Please model this.
Amino acid sequence: MVKKSDVWQGTLALMVLKTLETLGPMHGYGLARRIEQTSGDRLLLNYGTLYPALLKLEQEGYIASEWGVSENNRKAKFYKLTRAGHARLKQEAREWDETAGIIARFLTPERDTE
Amino acid sequence: MIVRLGGWRGREVRERELREELEAHFQMHIEDNLRAGMSAAQARREAALQFGSVDAAKEAVRSGWTVGFVENARQDLVYAMRGLRRNPAFALTAVLSLALGIGASVSIFTVADCLLLRPLPYPDPGRLVMVWESNPRGSALYNVVSPANFRDWKAQNDAFETLAGFGEGRGVLDDGRRVEEVGVQYMTADLLPMLGVPPYRGRFFTRAEDLPNTPDVVVISYRLWQGWFAGDEGAIGRKVQFGARPATVIGIMPPGFYFRNRDVDVWSAMGLDPARDYRKSSGRYMMSLGRLKTQVGLQQAQAQMAAIAKRLEAAYPVFDKNWSVKLDPLRESMVRTVKTSMWVLLGAVGLLLAVACANVANLLLARQNSRRREMAVRSAVGAGRARVVRQLLTESVVLALSGGLLGILLAVGAVRGMVALAPKELVGTAAVAIDLRILGFAVALSLLTGIVFGLAPSLAASRADLLGGLREDGRGSIRGNSGLRRGLVAAEVALSVALLAGAGLLFRSLMGLQGVDPGLDASGVLTFRVSLPSARYPELPRRLEFHQRALDQLRALPGVRAAGAINTLPFHGMPSGTYVNIGGRPAAKPGEELLATIRTVAPGYFHAMGIPLRSGRDFSAADNTLDSPYRFIVSESFARKYLAGEEPLGKQINALMQNTNPFGEIVGVVGDVKEGAVDREPTPTVYYVHAHMATGQMVFVVRTAGDPRSLTEPARGIIRELDAAQPVADIEVMEKIVAETFSRQRFSALLLVGFSMVSLLLAAVGIYGVLAYTVTERTREFGVRVALGADPGRITALVLGMGARLVLAGTAAGLAGALALTRLLKTMLFGVGVHDPVTFAAVPLVLATVALLAAYLPARRASRLPPLDALRAE
Model:
C-alpha cells in the first residue's frame, strides 16, 4: 500500500476536476472525502491543502463556486466545473494517460520484449 | 484577469466566507465521524487532526488572493503601528534617536555638499584654475599677482585656453535718485566669457572697452536689476555714476550667478594700461584665473608656469626675486580654509549617526527579546518564517522612516540656523539649500538604517525555537542576544568618547582664542564706512574737511568718548602691505626687504579703538594737513623687529606706497593689533596720517560709554547733514567684527559640543536600557540573593558593576580611537595639543558621571525589590 502521503498540487487539481465532472457540483468537504474514497483510502488528504488548490482553480477559471445548502441542511460553498474546466480536464487527462503509458513501459519491460 | 480583479471584493466579505467555508467543512466532518460511531470528543479530535492547522490553511488561501501581498503589507503595517503604540517609550526613543542622527547628518551634509561636492555653476569648472604668485620664503604661498607678471604669463604660456585677471572692491553706485555702496569685481574682458555663463540681458564688455581712458561700462547682477531697477528692461543703456566716473549699464548676469564672492553686484572692466610698466609703479594686487586646455593637466601647467616665473625672476632680479607661481583649482581656492572644518563636522555627524543607529539596534534587540513569546505564538499558529521576518522588518522600517521624516524636518530648521550662525566664509560662497537629492539621501539613509538594524533582530527572532519561546518564563533567554546588546552599548560609549574628545579640544581652542588679547578694546565701539566718491570730492582738502567735521560732530554727541577713522578696519579683510626703508641704512638686498602693513588713520583713532600708545604721541590735527611734514606712527612689533635696540622715536622711515615716498619721522609707537587672526603673530605696521595717504574710503570708529548701537541713528544723521547724497555702509559693532574672526572655530566647537552631548545622551539611554532589562530578567535571582541575606547595597553594586564594565570597555576603546582621530583636528586647534591631557582626563570623567547616573536608576530598582515579589516574579 502507498504510504498515506500528501498529494501534490498538479495531481490534486486533476482529481478535483475529474470528481466534479463525475459527480457534479460538490462542496469542499465532499470533494475531500470523495477523493479519499476513490483512492481506496490509500491517499490521506490534508484537507487544509485542498482550499488553496480550489482557490487557484477558481482563479484560473476552471471551476466556479456558489453558496448552497448541503445534504444535512448546512450552508456550504459548492464548486462546479466550468466550460473551460471541461476542456482543461480533457487535456490534463490525455496528458496524464500519455505520461502514465510511458512510465508503464519503463516499469514493465518484459511486455516490450515479447 | 476579470476573475482576478474579482479578488478585490471586500476583505471582510472574503475573510468571512473563508471562515464559514472551513467551519462548514469541519462540522460536516464531525457529523460524519459521529455517524461512524465516534464519541463527540473523538469526532472533533479526528477532524481537527486530519484538517491540520486551520490558520495555516487560511494563510495559504490568503496568500493566493491576488492582493495578498498588499494585504500582508497592510497587515504588517497595522501590526507595526499597534505594536509601537503599545510601547510608546520605545517608539519615541527610537524615532528621536534616528531623527537626531539623521537631522544632524543631513544638515551638515547639505552644507558640505554645497561647499565641497557640488560642481561650481560654470561649464567644465574642473579646468578653472587660480594662478597665484608664490613666495614660499616669505610664507606667501598664495599671493596676489603683479599686473606685469600677469601680462608676461599670458603672453608666454600655452597651457591655458585663456588667462584672465580680476580684482575686488567696493564702489558707490549713483543713478541720480539713489546712492549706495555695492560690491564690485574688476576684470579683464576675457574673464566673463571664459567662465562660460552667458549674460541674461545685454552683453559683456569688449577688449576695446577694457583699456584705460575709455568710457566705463558695467554689467550688473540680476539681484541689483530686480532691486534697484525693478526689473526694468530699459536698465540696459542706463547712465549711472560708478565710483568716480560715469558709466553705462550694458549687461545683466543671470539670477544666482556669482564668481568667488556672492556679495558682488557690479562687474566692470579692469582697464590695465598696456603702455605702463607696472613693475615700476605698483606691487602685487590683482588675481588671475585661467581655463586649462583640455589636454593639459594641472601638474603640467604648474611646471610650465614655474618655468616662466623662473625666466621672469632672471629678467627682473629685483621685482621678481624669490617669486614663483602656484596653481590652485578654483574650488580649492574658495574652500581651503573651511575644508578641514567641514570634513571634521562630516566625520562627527557620521559618528553621531552611528551612535544613533547603535542605539536603535539596541532598542530593537531588547524589544525582540521581550517579544520572543509573541513571535513564537505567531509561528505556532502558522505564520511562515518569511512572514515573521517581514513583520519585524516592517516595524523597524516604520520606525526608521518616521525618524527620517522627523530628521528631515530637524535638518530644514538646522540648516537655516546654521546659515545664520555660520561664519560668512563658510556659507558665503554657497547657496545652502536642501534639495531633492539630499532628501533622497536622507530617506535612503533612514531606510538603510531600518533594514540593516531591523534585519539582524528579525532573523534571530524567526529562528527562535517555538517550544523555547512558548515555554519561556523569563529566565531562559538571559543569554540570547544580550552579548550583542552590550557590545552595541560599549560601541556607543566609545563613539561618544571620540566625539567628546574632539568637542573638548575645539572648545578649549575657542576659549584660548577668545582669551587672547586682540590688542584693542572692542567693547563700546561702533564702526561705519563712508566712501566719498571722488566725482563729488575731487580735491583732497575737501575730503579732509569732510572727515574733520564729521569727527568733530561725532565727538560732540552725548555719551561719545572718542572718535577716529581708519582706511580699513583690523579684523576685517586684508590690509595692504609694502616694503619699508629705515633712514640711514643702505637699501635692502633683494629678498631681504622689510615688509610692513600700511594703514591710514585720522587723529584720534588709537584712542577710539582702545589701542595703547606705548611711547611718543598720536597724530595731531596739525599733522593732518597737506603741507605738514611726513610723520609716522609704528607698531610695537615694527620697533622690535626692524629697530631692535634703537630708539624708534625720531627715526626716519619711508614706505613704498606711492610714486614719491618721502621719508618721515616716527612720532609714536602703539601696541600691536593681532592682524587678521588672533592666533597669528602680529605683523609690523606703519600708520600714515590721512592727509598724506588719502583714501576716499574711511571707516569711522566711535567709542561710547553705553551701548554703541544707540549711536547708529545720530551718526547717520551727522553724515546726512554734511552731505545728503552720501551713503553710510556697514554699520557694525566692533565686538562683532572681532568675534567674526573666531566664527569658524566657534561654529565647529559649538556643533561638535552639540553632537557629543546628543551622543552622550543616546549612550546613557543605551546603558540604562541594557541594565534595566537585565534587572527585569534577573528579578528572581536578586530575590533569592536578598532572601538569603544579601545586603541591598551589594545588589546595587552588582548592577552598577555591570554598567561600569560596559563603560570601561567603551571608554578604553573610545580613548584609543580619539587619540588617533584628534590628530586630524591639528590645524583647527589653538593653544592645545591634539592629546591635551585636560581634555583627555575630563572626557572619561564626564562620561563616567553620566553613565553611572544612567546605571544607578536600574541598580536602585534592583536593590529595592521586595524579596517575596521577586521570588514570585514570573
Summary: Residues 330-370 of chain B form the longest helix (41 residues). Residues 2-66 of chain B form one domain.
